[in-house]
Amino acid sequence: MFKELNPLLHSELRLAVMSVLLSVESADFVFLREQTGATAGNLSVQIDKLQQAGYITVEKGFQGKKPRTTCAITEQGISAFEEYVKALRSYIGKGL
Amino acid sequence: MFKELNPLLHSELRLAVMSVLLSVESADFVFLREQTGATAGNLSVQIDKLQQAGYITVEKGFQGKKPRTTCAITEQGISAFEEYVKALRSYIGKGL
DNA sequence: TAAAGTAGTTTATTTTATAAACCAAATTTT
DNA sequence: AAAATTTGGTTTATAAAATAAACTACTTTA
């Protein structure tokens, strides 16, 4: 009847991060914070979880003298997202 | 950019309960447990939260000698669900 | 050089979800 | 007919998440 909702993606902030990354090739920490409206602390934690899961890659480097963290979605992340959307359909119907 | 996801509905089990109730006029506890696959304890708690929020009505009575809890979605519940679905769209695109 | 800002991380607190234990009545088994 | 099982739940305890607050380390500006 109802498909399981991947708990890693069923989180407002992680879903927002994935959504941004799907449309953007790569995004840095500050951009993600702005787009999602999240606090830095929360974002830091959730980025970490997405990386652990292999859904995004995270590169920490420097831009001049400032630290810069850049994220990008992986193939695995894309298909997990697609699966999640499919599962959602079983809850909310095609009617949207 | 991203609309807020009503935290009361952004829960797998509560969403499933709402989804069932949307399509069914009214449903008893056992039916909901079967449809959602949830444990009775979890279902009991989540039904309570949906009722507190005014999203469903809960009537406890007897059918013969057995207790029988019947739930139905409210107008408020329907529009909250619709709002939630709209908000979801901001995360997953029109492709839902 | 002191204050404020940037880019994060770590830790602590609160909130949720889930499971486990429990209760009361009814039904079935021996 | 007593004992065990099932039904229909609720309550309580534990695990997992989300969020906020505090902190680190470095940089820029006044």
Strand order of the largest sheet of chain A: 1-3-2
- Sum up the overall morphology of chain A in one term: elongated
Q: What pair of chains forms the biggest interface? A: A-B, 20 and 21 residues
Mean of residue pLDDT values of chain A: 92
Query: What value does the Rg of chain A take, in angstroms?
Result: 14 Å
Helix share, percent of chain A = 40-55%
Q: Which sheet architecture does the biggest sheet of chain A show?
A: 3 strands, antiparallel
Describe the structure.
Two copies of one chain form a homodimer. Chain A is α+β, with helices and mostly antiparallel strands. Chain A has four helices and three strands, in the order H-E-H-H-E-E-H. Chain A has helices spanning 12-22, 29-36, 40-52, 75-92; strands at 27-28, 56-63, 66-73. Chain A has a three-stranded antiparallel β-sheet with strand order 1-3-2. In chain A, strand 2 and strand 3 form a beta hairpin. Chain A starts with 11 loop residues before the first helix and ends with a helix. The A-B interface holds A 1-2, 4-5, 7, 10, 12, 15-16, 19, 35-37, 85, 88-89, 91-93, 96 and B 1-2, 4-5, 7, 10, 12, 15-16, 19, 35-37, 85-86, 88-89, 91-92, 95-96. Chain A binds a DNA duplex (30 and 30 nucleotides) through helix 2, helix 3 and strand 3.
